[in-house]
Fold this protein.
Amino acid sequence: MYGDSDVIRSRVDRLREQADDIRASADKLVAQAEAVPWHGRAAESLRGRMKERATALRGAGEQHDRAADSLAKHLKQVDLHKDQIAEAESRAEALLADGKLHGFEAPEPGHKDWLEVTFR
């Protein structure tokens, strides 16, 4: 069998959670920098640098979201192929039971070679 859908789905969820955590960290960083009780050039420099860091963190959060989107797209393909394999196996079973597939050598159960099997 190819790809454990539950594991992939879990990883997609975890990437999205991490993206949210990263963005929350960015927001917290900016809020803490803004809350610094002192003023002057050093304080403004600190705030500016923390805003830059927060922007970079938000970018990392976006990268996590894109990775999750890509993995979710992959998951759809994995599930589609698994369904197609199961359908081909079921069809072959039915045809074999009816005696309509003489000499048919079936691929291993769950193997991707089932995707290449055609029935006429």
Observations:
- The two ends are 25 Å apart (CA to CA).
